[in-house]
Amino acid sequence: MRGPGRMETQRVTEYPTSPQPAARSTGGGARTAASVAGRADAAHAPLPDPPGGSGATAPQGAPRRVPAPTNAPVSGAAGHPDPGGGGGHARSTGGDEPVGRSRPEVPGERAGADHDTAPGTAPDTAPGTVPGAAEHPGGDEIAERERRGGDRLRFVGAATRRIARGVDLDETVLGLCRASVPAFTDAILVYLRDPLPVGDERPTGPAVLRLRRTDRLPDHALEAPAASPDLEASDTGEFPLPLLSVSPEGGGGGAAELIEVRGGGPLAEVLRGVRPVFGDASTAREALPELLGPGHDAPVGRRAILAPMRGRRRVIGAAVFLRRPERSAFEPDDLLVAAQLATHTALGVDKAVLYGREAYIADELQRTMLPDELPQPTGVTLASRYLPAAETARVGGDWYDAIPLPGGRVALVVGDVMGHSMTSAAIMGQLRTTAQTLAGLDLPPQEVLHHLDEQAQRLGSDRMATCMYAVYDPVAHRIVVANAGHPPPVMLHRDGRAEVLHVPAGAPIGVGGVDFEAVELPAPAGATLLLYTDGLVESRHRDVWTGIERLREKLTETAGLTRPDTPPPLEPLCDEVLDILGPGDRDDDIALLAARFDGIPPSDVAYWYLDPRAQTARQARRLARRALERWGLEELSDSVELLVSEVVTNAVRYAERPITLRLLRTDVLRCEVGDDVPQLPRLRQARATDEGGRGLYLVNRLARRWGATRLSTGKVVWFEFSMP
Q1: Residues 242/254, Cβ–Cβ less than 8 Å
Q2: Which of the residues 276, 361, 409, 615 has the least number of beta carbons within 10 Å of its own beta carbon?
Q3: Angle at 93 between CA 88 and CA 95, to 5 degrees
Q4: How many CB atoms lie within 10 A of CB 4?
Q5: What pLDDT digit, counting tens, does each position of 220-273 carry?
Q6: Residue 495 in contact with residue 562, Cβ under 8 Å?
Q7: Which residues pair with 398 in a beta bridge?
């Protein structure tokens, strides 16, 4: 069985076009709708009376006479007026004379026309009549039908173009409503399945239709200059449809919003039939009350059309077109117009639903690939921004990350995989996971980039990416940076000076066979480091270095808005940085990571090297007690000394080199014990007869948090206490 869209398109195209040139599309929706509405209204208006007739009308059933245009010669085509006279199509007489030009009169031809009219000649006609009306009493009706067919064809073309402009579901349905009212109908109701099936999904359960949108021609547009008091403007500026109150006496109350289609009922039968039906059809008379809800009657006669909306595979809804009593009723050919509108809208809804699902998948993929929220490690404040290349390309290969490291340090990562597609996002996710794993091993930045390069080569020969990896130490106030083909970072100093850091560029990740170099730079307290991707500084209108200079100037300008020696707030600073983007600068994804270095003052740090001897545990307890007394934390002494003794005892038992003990006072009290043994301790439940194995059990019960991290030179066991 052929789909309704194919059949209807063939039927519509059989109508001959009007001799008048088709109106050119202006590209504006309102102007196109207005011109289409004017043509539609003219199609339903009566023909004008002949001039000079003093109001007299022709008898019913007689051929209508139209005024003959002045100086308009009669065409050589029998029964067809000249194009300049506003009649039908001009046809050639078979001679060499141009179409539409009158032939010179041949003697005797007029007399012979009373008996046998020769092909290519026009019979004698009275002034003011349509040529050919003597032989064809319905000639003007044919011309009128042709004109209406041309108007319908032009309206369908303009309406389907407007419907096709919609990208999402609401835009598509709105395009149907705006194109139909008032050019084709005075009111429209659009119902869609709830939920809408996506792609090849088969709906389960009973069919439920939800009223998605209504639109109508307001009463004041046809009757009074002021709006009816029962109408209120909606949020979109449209007038609500108090249902089918298309006549002034109509009842109020809105149409049913949710309708369950009864299996085997009249509405289900109409929807299965696919073809639009008039409201006075036997099936529609019972289907419309079921669709509109109890207590609501459709207009009588052919002033209502119920059009099922069939998508690619199934009916996904229905549209109801209504006309007021003062407007002419729908004609049989209007069913084809309604079928075209419903079919194009259904196909647009199908595409919008598929696009919505793809956009949801893209959003979820990008959201899960990026951190939900940044950590707040000690000694540094972080902020970030991510912008996709465009709404139609929501996923990309840009990423950022902040990874806490042992000793209060933090790794700052920004990368950019080539392209902004689902493939780029998938590769980005793998590289980000690899970077997190390598950061957990506490490898130097250049080693991390080396392993990322190997991973990119394993993923494929064309998997290219750039990356900036930096490790900030809040105790030493230093930062170690390694670069793999990424734009250089920019540091905003406390005094408002912005500086582009000189970091060796290196080769992009995925090239293979290259070495990466790391540099150590000072990170003074109050300074702000900005890591970003090239989408922020590069576009088709400017090169990278021009964009970097613009970024540096913007940072200096923003810092000048605050008091001297006071860094600008971090979140507003990120927003100001994004303002350097011009209207045509969004060619690529943008990832931005800003880090404000607060540091940890030396007075809040206690650090010792201890030899692995039997007396080391006692020495560690004494040193920890003195540090707590200096900080005024004596009430934590007992718990801290107990846990320090347990952890140091375990380290002394297996270590061969000096161990380290460090206490950090920030918002918590943190204790770290390091040794040269890479094996991590494991919490286990000691038996009653065991002499050991209870040290980590005590740490787990008394400390706020604890953990162990493997280093390149061994491991660190740490625990934290809340400040009293």
Answers
A1: yes
A2: 615
A3: 145
A4: 23
A5: 555 543 333 333 333 333 333 344 443 333 334 456 688 888 888 888 888 888
A6: no
A7: 416
Domain 602-722 class?
Answer: alpha beta
Q: Which of 319, 322, 282, 280 is nearest to 304 (CA)?
A: 322
Q: In degrees rounded to 5, what are phi and psi of residue 575?
A: -65, -40
Taking only the tens place, the pLDDT of each residue in 573-609 is 999 999 888 766 677 889 999 999 999 999 999 999 9
* 552 or 564, greater pLDDT: 552
**316 neighbors 309 (Cβ within 8 angstroms):** yes
Identify the CATH class of 370-597.
Answer: alpha beta
Taking residues 165-186, what's their average pLDDT? Answer: 90
pLDDT, average across residues 614-624: 93
In one-letter notation, the amino acid at residue 115 is H
Q: Which residues have C-beta within 8 Å of that of residue 323, sequence separation ≥ 6?
A: 185, 186, 187, 246, 299, 303, 304, 329, 330
Task: Encode pLDDT of 437-455 as tens digits.
Answer: 999 888 899 999 999 999 9
For the chain, domain boundaries: 149-216+256-360, 370-597, 602-722
Place of tokens 């000691």: 686
Q: 626-667: per-residue pLDDT in tens?
A: 999 999 999 999 999 999 999 999 999 889 999 999 999 988
Q: Are strands 668-675 and 714-722 parallel, antiparallel or unpaired?
A: antiparallel
Q: Please, which residues bridge with residue 674 across strands? A: 660, 716
- What are the tokens at 35? 């011109």
Are 46 and 95 in contact by the 8 Å Cβ rule? The answer is no
Place of tokens 């949020």: 235
Compute the distance between CA of residue 595 and CA of residue 401 in angstroms, rounded to an integer: 11
Question: Letter for the amino acid at 285?
Answer: R
% of the chain surpassing 90 pLDDT: 37
Question: Residue 246: its pLDDT value, please?
Answer: 37
> Domain 149-216+256-360 adopts which CATH fold?
Beta-Lactamase (3.30.450)
In 3D, which of 299, 306, 363, 315 has the Cα closest to residue 339? 306
pLDDT at 712 over 90: no
3-state secondary structure of 520: strand
Residue 447 corresponds to which amino acid? E
Sheet holding 659-665, edge to edge: 605-610, 659-665, 668-675, 714-722, 705-711
C-alpha neighbours within 13 Å on the C-beta side of residue 108 = 0
Q: Tell the residue number behind the tokens 């030493």, with chain if given.
A: 476
- Neighbour tally for 205: CB within 10 Å: 7
SS3 709: strand
pLDDT score, position 447: 93
> Peptide bond preceding 50: is omega within 30 degrees of 0, i.e. cis?
no
C-alpha distances out from residue 11 to 303, 330, 433, 675, 705, Å: 22, 17, 59, 86, 76
CATH topology match: 370-597 vs 602-722: no
- What are the φ/ψ torsions at residue 405 (nearest 5 degrees)? -120, 165
